[in-house]
TrEMBL record:
Keywords: Coenzyme M biosynthesis, Decarboxylase, Lyase, Thiamine pyrophosphate. Pfam families: TPP_enzyme_C (PF02775), TPP_enzyme_N (PF02776). It comes from the Archaea. One of its GO terms (molecular function) is sulfopyruvate decarboxylase activity. GO terms for biological process: coenzyme M biosynthetic process. It comes from Methanocella arvoryzae (strain DSM 22066 / NBRC 105507 / MRE50). This is sulfopyruvate decarboxylase. Residues 228-344 form the Thiamine pyrophosphate enzyme TPP-binding domain. NCBIfam families: sulfopy_beta (TIGR03846), sulfopyru_alph (TIGR03845). It catalyses: 3-sulfopyruvate + H(+) = sulfoacetaldehyde + CO2.
Length: 371
């Protein structure tokens, strides 16, 4: 029996259309089948995949993740504060390391205790050890979407033993490549607050899909322009651009992300995943106050670097700076192929605005109905 193909068939039967992946050698004969049957989004970090999957789902897609079980540890905070808090589904097909014929000691501790971790997190899971478990795998994937919850399927390496799947071919060798970057940059002095900037671009944001960063930025957006097409984040720091990436991949309308220097520096490889997928309908506005504004203006190290240059090094070609509200509105209105990255210096000052009077689930429901 070709077990790898049988798992692919189960995923198809469940309606999965997009698969986010990070490899494990125990799944090396399974992974090459994914791009032949689904849209594959290779990841550089599992946590970023959680954000992309959220955006994909809210745009009408049906994603799944295929990762190594250790990556679940990297994703627990995002799964808790995003998927469990907003009631979002995500089937995670994980290669369960550390338990069956494990030769790498570093895999053992987390692998051994992973079922207990999932139990304590309230995340349902299933262990798949043999081909006869595949009907239960299908049920688990369906259950994830029926109950709007992450659902982890732990594939024991034992399940692949005796499979007739074709051995994975060797990877192609890297080719010569070159880059031409102008590294002479200047960071303008901040003269306006983030709230000033947001209020100034309300005419552009009106009617568009807008994803706003956690904490005060979401409250400022709500105060300036509440609309059903706004997705307000209340947790999952570092995930806002990943969610925007997923939304832009999953549908055709323009997506505007309101990100910040602390969030980007916490999860910078999101920029690489944006460049990799290159959705033309995505604009990331990076408000840079060189501070963690929502927690008391503790300094970030963006004061020693250029976030626009960072985006370009990651592969985002359409970048610019906007030091005033007028410049930001002009940059947004300027035609150009996305993804776009606009670096905006702002004063480290928060507006005195009220909390958002919506539950996370209400934010999600209203948002999905609107887009």
């Amino acid at each position: 029996m070709n077990v790898e193909q049988a798992v692919i068939d189960v995923m198809k039967q469940c309606g999965i259309d997009t698969v986010l992946t990070l490899p494990c050698d125990r799944m090396k004969n399974f992974l090459p089948l994914i791009p032949k049957n689904f849209r594959e989004i290779p990841l550089s970090r599992e946590e970023g995949g959680v954000g992309i999957a959220a955006g994909l789902y809210m745009s009408g897609k049906k994603p799944a993740m295929v990762i190594q079980s250790t990556g679940i540890g990297n994703s627990l905070t995002a799964l808790s504060s995003l998927h469990k808090t907003y009631d979002l589904p995500l089937p995670i097909l994980a290669s369960w390391r550390g338990v069956y014929k494990e030769s790498i000691q570093a895999q053992v501790h987390f692998g051994k205790f992973l079922p207990g971790v999932l139990d304590n997190m309230g995340i349902p899971y299933l262990v798949a050890e043999k081909p006869a478990d595949l009907p239960a795998v299908r049920k688990a994937i369906d259950q994830s979407y029926k109950e709007n919850t992450p659902y982890v399927i732990l594939f024991s390496p034992k399940i692949w033993e005796g499979s007739t799947a074709k051995e994975a071919e060797s990877a192609p060798q890297p080719q010569e490549r070159s880059f031409d970057l102008n590294c002479s940059t200047r960071m303008p002095r901040a003269t306006e607050t983030r709230f000033d900037m947001i209020k100034a671009i309300v005419p552009y944001l009106r009617g568009k899909i807008v994803v706003s960063n956690i904490g005060v930025p979401s409250k400022e957006l709500y105060a300036a322009l509440d609309q059903p097409t706004n997705f307000y984040m209340t947790g999952s720091w570092g995930e806002v651009s990943a969610i925007g990436n997923g939304l832009a991949i999953g549908q055709q309308k323009e997506v505007v992300v309101l990100d910040g220097d602390g969030s980007i520096l916490f999860n910078p490889n999101t920029l690489g995943m944006i460049a990799q997928e290159s959705p033309e309908n995505l604009t990331v506005i990076a408000f840079d106050n060189s501070a963690h504004g929502s927690t008391g203006n503790q300094p970030t190290y963006s004061s020693r670097m250029d976030l626009e240059l960072l985006a370009r090094v990651y592969g985002i070609g359409n970048t610019t700076k906007a030091a005033t509200a007028k410049e930001l509105l002009s940059a947004l209105e300027k035609a150009g192929k996305g993804p776009r990255f606009i670096h905006v210096p702002v004063l480290a000052k928060n507006a005195d605005v009220p909390n958002i009077p919506l539950s996370n689930v209400d934010i999600k429901k209203r948002f999905m109905e609107a887009i």
